[in-house]
Write a structure and sequence with these properties.
heterodimer, A: mainly alpha, two-stranded antiparallel sheet, 86% helix, 4% strand, elongated, B: mainly alpha, Sodium/glucose cotransporter, 26 helices
């Protein structure tokens, strides 16, 4: 488990997961100002008194964050367990 | 009796007693647990044995500062939509902390960020550099807490000058920290999260049931004058609304993106609304970067991850924190929105009497004893907010001074008793400086000042942590250059803006001529964060020969699951090395 390959595998798998989750979220975070900028009329549409933009930012953002983080935690704990399993199997083989 | 009568004139007994009880309970809890915290490890990281639920409540309790409790509402009221980025990004920042930093950082196992800096690069010099930023970020973060304290006390005691409130609250918390340490604080912080949650949500529900729903109040901001009695019944408003005062922003820019907050610099330069839009977009993105990256680099939050038993617990804790603070952050903007309709007279006032006190004042609109009780509850929440954050900051800044500067640099052979005494002295010194700084900033918005602390953290600690965790090619020289350049650039920019806004330096004409410079100074993250990361990469490549020799082992300790027991191996190897 001290090998270069093991470290690379470890870091690559975890970073890939983190970057994927971050990307999913960044789409929203970078996209909303752009929508505000290029489609102001659409974002000013009233929904139950809220403007669409206000509703998305002030209320709907939080559930999105929770979903992404829940997915990340489950997946990263699974990855860790898998890594431990891998090391133990290697030991048996040797 | 007469003097006391003058002092208590205009004091609402309900508001006073709720606030008093909060302060008394906080201090009592601090003292109670002071008796059970004995060792130095207890003092610094609570013995590393705090459960996920407790730790998540404590982190949330510490994080929800005066900026979240009072500042967000005040800023939504004064600036509208643009201010919503603050609460959203305060919560979203945790996602980045979770994705990239929380787990590895906990696994590495060190008391503080400077410990991490030293351990990762085997460099005592780097520790000294890293310590400075605990203090820089800390002082920037304490100023808005102090403004919250001064504002709240000035509200409870209408005759009291702003600076007296700052001094009284600052002194009480400093004493509490000097006697209690962090173990006391974990329990108090956890309790204070739930207290703040209660204090922000209950008044909102009452206000909404009396005066109309969140959406209805937003809907009332449609640009029509308040007394449109001749309108057809179909579009008659569902909520009552007072006429806006002259200084208040009009409905359309207030409710739509790129409003007063982000267009101020361009407007001052005389640009038209259409010309100002690109500037606003730039401002918005820079603000987002500062808040999201800054959360992942706050020293007083990061130190708490070491109180988790392992990396998995650290990740679970972070997720719970996001849920706890996410729910909380829905509420403060509601105060700002309803406040705009019911208490527009606050727009005309400045400093401690301005929009920053909307959370405290608005519940009184309910009227009678119930109004006073609700206002008392929000005042108690405000106390919980600035007391918990200020004590957390004080612990990490004092820890930096006592543990790093004194324990590691000045007197490495100090006895535990000497260290404990130093912890107390350092707490008093830092508390005094914080009070002094806090008394100067009455005219600045709470939320804005916290944003500046985030901008400094985003350009210094965030690049350091992010790059050292994920890139093994980092060298000490590269990390230090990047962190110092980015962090100091952000520090210089925010200081210039504050001095100019407090009218200590006159730059009005310069800002008018250069609106872009004003925006890049006010929200520097968009160029300082890439600058810091870029410098780290370039300098590390140039000094690639100095990459720590045992880098593979270090990366394994950061990234391999604890169950493999690599950390014990690493520690053993190192203690062998020291023995030669």
């Amino acid at each position: 488990m001290h090998s270069e390959e093991f470290l690379r595998l470890l870091m690559r798998r975890q970073l890939k997961l983190s970057v994927a989750c971050a990307a999913a979220f960044m789409v929203g975070l970078i996209g909303l100002p752009l929508l505000n900028y290029y489609a102001p009329a659409l974002m000013a549409t009233r929904v139950a008194g809220f403007t669409l933009s206000w509703l998305l930012l002030g209320v709907m953002c939080f559930p999105l964050v929770w979903t992404v983080s829940y997915f990340f935690i489950r997946r990263s704990i699974w990855l860790e367990e898998d890594e431990v399993r891998m090391v133990h199997e290697n030991r048996k083989e040797n | 009796m007469l003097a006391a009568g003058g002092f208590f004139a205009g004091v609402d007994p309900w508001i006073f007693s709720f606030s008093f009880v909060t302060v008394a309970v906080t201090i009592w809890m601090g003292f109670r647990s002071a008796r059970t915290s004995k060792t130095a490890s207890d003092f610094f990281v609570a013995g590393r044995s705090v459960s996920v639920g407790m730790n998540a409540s404590a982190i949330s309790g510490e994080y929800l500062s005066a900026a979240s409790f009072m500042g967000v509402a005040g800023m939504v009221m004064s600036s509208g939509y643009d201010a919503l980025w603050y609460p959203v990004c305060y919560a979203c920042g945790y996602l980045f902390l979770l994705l990239f930093i929380a787990g590895p950082l906990r696994r590495f196992g060190a008391y503080t960020i400077p410990d991490f800096a030293e351990g990762r690069f085997d460099s005592p010099l780097f520790r000294k550099i890293a310590v400075c930023f605990v203090l820089f970020i800390g002082f920037f973060y304490t100023m808005p807490q102090m403004k919250g304290a001064g504002t709240t006390l000035a509200y409870i005691f209408p005759g009291l000058p702003y600076w007296v409130g700052v001094a009284v609250v600052g002194a009480v918390i400093t004493l509490n920290v000097a006697l209690g340490g962090m173990k006391g604080i974990t329990l108090v912080q956890a309790f204070q999260y739930w207290m703040k949650m209660f204090a922000i949500s209950v008044p909102v529900f009452v206000l909404m049931s009396v005066y109309g729903f969140y959406g209805a109040h937003l809907g009332a901001n449609d640009g029509r004058p308040p007394s449109a009695a001749t309108e057809p019944a179909a579009i008659v408003r569902t909520v009552e609304r007072k006429p806006l005062v002259e200084k208040a922003p009009a409905d359309a820019p207030w409710i739509s993106p790129f409003g007063p907050l982000t267009t101020k610099a361009a407007k001052a330069a005389g640009l038209t609304a259409e010309q100002a839009r690109p500037y606003s977009l730039l401002y918005t993105y820079s603000l987002i970067i500062a808040l999201v990256c800054g959360t992942a680099g706050l020293p007083h939050i990061l130190v708490r991850f070491y109180t988790n038993p392992d990396g998995v617990a650290a990740k679970k804790t972070t997720m719970w924190v996001m849920i706890l603070i996410g729910i909380f952050y829905v509420f403060p903007p509601i105060f700002g929105v309803i406040g705009r309709d019911l208490l527009p007279e606050l727009y005309a006032a400045t400093g401690a009497k301005g929009t920053d006190k909307i959370v405290l004042e608005l519940p009184r609109a309910v009227g009678g004893v119930w109004g006073s009780i609700l206002s008392g509850i929000t005042c108690a929440g405000a106390f919980a907010a600035f007391m918990s954050t200020f004590s957390g900051l004080l612990v990490s800044m004092t820890g930096a001074l006592a543990h790093d500067v004194y324990g590691r640099m000045l007197r490495p052979n100090a006895t535990p008793e000497q260290r404990m005494r130093m912890f107390k002295i350092a707490a008093v010194v830092i508390g005094a400086v914080a009070i002094l700084l806090g008394s100067q900033v009455e005219q600045l918005q709470i939320n804005f000042m916290v944003g500046q602390a985030f901008a400094i953290a985003a350009a210094s600690y965030f690049p350091l942590l992010f790059m050292s965790v994920w890139w093994r090619g980092m060298t000490m020289t590269g990390a230090a250059t990047g962190m110092l350049t980015g962090g100091l650039a952000a520090l210089a920019c925010t200081t210039v803006i504050n001095l100019s806004d407090l009218k200590m330096v006159n730059l009005v004409d310069f800002w008018k001529a250069n609106p872009l410079a004003r925006i890049l100074c006010e929200q520097p993250a968009i160029w300082t964060v890439p600058l810091a990361i870029g410098l780290m990469i370039v300098i590390s490549k140039l000094t690639a020969a100095n990459v720590p020799a045992d880098i593979r082992m270090k990366m394994l300790v950061l990234h391999a699951p604890e169950n493999l027991g690599l950390k014990q191996e690493y520690i053993q190897e190192h203690s062998h090395g020291a023995g030669h």
